[in-house]
Amino acid sequence: NIRQSIGDNEKIHYFEGTALFEAPDRISVGDEILAGEKVVICTGARTQIPPVNGLSEVPYLTSTTALELQQLPESLVIIGGGIIAVEFAQMFAAFGVQVTILQRSPRIIPNVEPELSAGIHAILERDGVNIITGADIRSVQRDKNGVKVSLTVPDGEKSLTAERLMVATGRAPNTDRLQLAKAGVETDQRGYIKVDHAFRTTVPGIWA
After folding, report:
1. Overall pTM > 0.85
2. Contacts of range 129-133, beta carbons closer than 8 Å, 24 or more positions apart
3. Stretch 175-197: mean pLDDT, rounded?
4. What confidence score (pLDDT) does residue 32 get?
């Protein structure tokens, strides 16, 4: 419990709630207005959920909830083929879970060199992971065995089922709810806060 762990430190004042910038040096948390000369933003990121038909109606795991499982599934389909997807695929495969990765691009971890991507692909297949690249997921739905995924691949259409589904299609920064515009803090096109080598934002006195 965060409140308990810092409660004995008289130099720390803990406020729980949604924080919003009202000005570069003022932040509201509920009915409280906090003022300070220096502000550090460290709101982290969340799982980026793709716009897949039926996904909102199907229970799925993320990189957070997958670590909270009390029982291993027999089979798992992972949507996404980046670093996070690959890490979880190898982990679950090592535990004996039948894992399938569905990757939209022609290769997994597309942001690394092709030779490295191919090497990791081979290692995963050696460990028993089924990898489907060029997969365009059309829909997901509940199935008597868990979840059914319908997709289009380069050689046609196919469907597969698994006991559990995991979404690992990247991360989205938790900046869209901070009212950064009121503070003048600039972000890039993906929503990540622009900082320099010292983590200073575009506004003096604010770091991220």
Report:
1. no
2. 129/89, 129/90, 129/93, 129/99, 129/100, 129/101, 130/98, 130/99, 130/100, 130/101, 131/81, 131/100, 131/101, 131/103, 132/100, 132/101, 132/102, 132/103, 133/81, 133/103, 133/105, 133/106, 133/107, 133/108
3. 95
4. 94
